[in-house]
Amino acid sequence: MKKPTTIHDIARKANVSSATVSRVLSNSDYPVSKALQEKIRRIAAEMNYIPNLLGKQLKKNVSMTIGVIVPSIINPFYSSVVFGIEEIARENHYTVVTCNSLQDPTLEDEYIRTIMEKQIKGLIISSISKDKSLLKNSIQMGLNVIAIDQTIEEEGVSQIKFDYRKGGYMATKHLLSKGHSRIGYVTSRLDRPSRQSICQGYLYAMKEAKLEPIVEESKSEELYNAVFDFDTGKKLANKLLAAPDRPTAIFACNDMMAFGVINELSQQGVKVPEDISVMGFDGIDFGLMIHPPLTTIKQPDYDMGKLACRLLLDKINGEDSPTFDVMLQPKLLERNSVLPISERV
Amino acid sequence: MKKPTTIHDIARKANVSSATVSRVLSNSDYPVSKALQEKIRRIAAEMNYIPNLLGKQLKKNVSMTIGVIVPSIINPFYSSVVFGIEEIARENHYTVVTCNSLQDPTLEDEYIRTIMEKQIKGLIISSISKDKSLLKNSIQMGLNVIAIDQTIEEEGVSQIKFDYRKGGYMATKHLLSKGHSRIGYVTSRLDRPSRQSICQGYLYAMKEAKLEPIVEESKSEELYNAVFDFDTGKKLANKLLAAPDRPTAIFACNDMMAFGVINELSQQGVKVPEDISVMGFDGIDFGLMIHPPLTTIKQPDYDMGKLACRLLLDKINGEDSPTFDVMLQPKLLERNSVLPISERV
DNA sequence: TTGTATGCGTTATCAC
DNA sequence: GTGATAACGCATACAA
């Protein structure tokens, strides 16, 4: 393991100054004679030169890296987002540092600190912590931030929002349009604005239709975990089934819970959608793979990641960095877990 | 956006040398008087000091970062692996750069190059490319590499292997033990050693039982994609159904394909497991969420990630870095998609 | 115990 | 066109 070649090594071998080598190998537009260019490139290749970005970055005060903080990439929604981010980052020669916050504010701050120390200038974050003081401070120090999924009411933070409320409204309206009137809503703990918004959409649609809302909220607050949501869906479905006046349709706050609902219903001999219709929320691919394929609201995860990264890079590179909000629109994915009330058996 | 404070700024304000500041703030064991320590720490805090790791890393020639290259974190198997890696990395104050190679050798090399340039000393990789010359070269330059999932026959590369062959064998034996004799095997393109090994395990078990193997291989070679595997499963299941002598059990090379198989069977009115039993391979959580819950072979994804990262960090930090192989063992996850032939209806 | 000075690998500002 | 040299922020060998 010999130590790596530097521009100085190349300079010595080529009988030129390291300045010239730098100018050539960093593709600067500074004029260097064709002859020297070729010579230097040849020698660099011969010597297996690998530029040390640490040096370059220290000098130029950039890191060509962006940070991403999400609750957990185990969650297919976030893994799609990160996948989209990474794609755009790669196209622009940026690398991505992925951080799983596990919805732990302490971890979140730890990551932000590391990101700042590593001189990373851009961050895409789905933040969960209440105390945004470190984030705020970091922004003042020059960090460019795009918030996804979770709203951050902080000056200078651009948002990629998703119209959760409309999504909740659309889902409920869809169920209503199929003739359902006893529509249950199952949701994980209503402590995040996104969850609250979906619920508001549901409530609003029900109110509009002059119907009684039926909300089952899970009070537990475990760390983010797919199987946990699934189990929650099962539990809440159970509650709904036990009620004197069973709903004819159940709307779940995310797909994973909807899977749990469907599973529990099937297990209890309740047919989906013949007996009870089920709607999800997220539009992850697995919805296609279960039986029946899940009717759901599509949240554009992958595209959200791509967009977030594009906007972040613009912000990092742009002289003017206006703060902006983007509101992505929900889309109904009509599959087979919802049946018109008229066709119920 | 004022420019960040350095140890020099602090030194000036504290009327000490920057060396002393460095010694205090980097928690060096170099002796500094209690009084000065406190003074320096206080001023550092007042000035909102954030150490610039670029400087530190350039000086010490470390980067406290590891790289991870996997085909795609969209794949739940890999997202679990990466999640495990990230957990151990965090505990050790390392950050993780995540790269999705999309099974594209060009991209893979591009990432390796970037990793070297960023002075990253450790890499966990599921490599797909045939030409390992760049990787080999990087190892000689001091890169520590742990190969997961895909074997890399290169000197100095430690492997976290998984006994695919035994997994394939165990799955088939399980089916055999339930009395099945017409057992079909559906697999994506047999161009990766892991896929071949599973198939070999299947073939060996069949041969041992003196039974005729039935292998359906997909010839298409799309980029890694969950829905694609699902569709492949559907297609291959179809072929198997069309055969004159239908199998009573189908073993799929991964869970996603097994979902496709189950879906197609259900759609064609074939009941799982009453009419045909289905086995998967991977043990991803979603297997729990479908109906019937998928009997499968567990590949310890999350633990594999944790182990890989632990071994990598040992290797980076250890004076002696012996090359080693770890062979993780498959585990049967018995759920409800397999029925003894005697109980078939 | 503290300070001075040098260098990590690179780019940028000069001068030639 | 090219070269010498000074930064970038930090850690450390050496001096004091």
UniProtKB/TrEMBL annotation, chains A, B:
This is LacI family DNA-binding transcriptional regulator. PROSITE patterns: HTH_LACI_1, HTH_LACI_2. Keywords: DNA-binding, Transcription, Transcription regulation. Signal peptide: none annotated. Residues 5-60 form the HTH lacI-type domain. It comes from the Bacteria. The keyword DNA-binding applies. GO terms for molecular function: DNA binding. CDD domains: HTH_LacI, PBP1_LacI_sugar_binding-like.
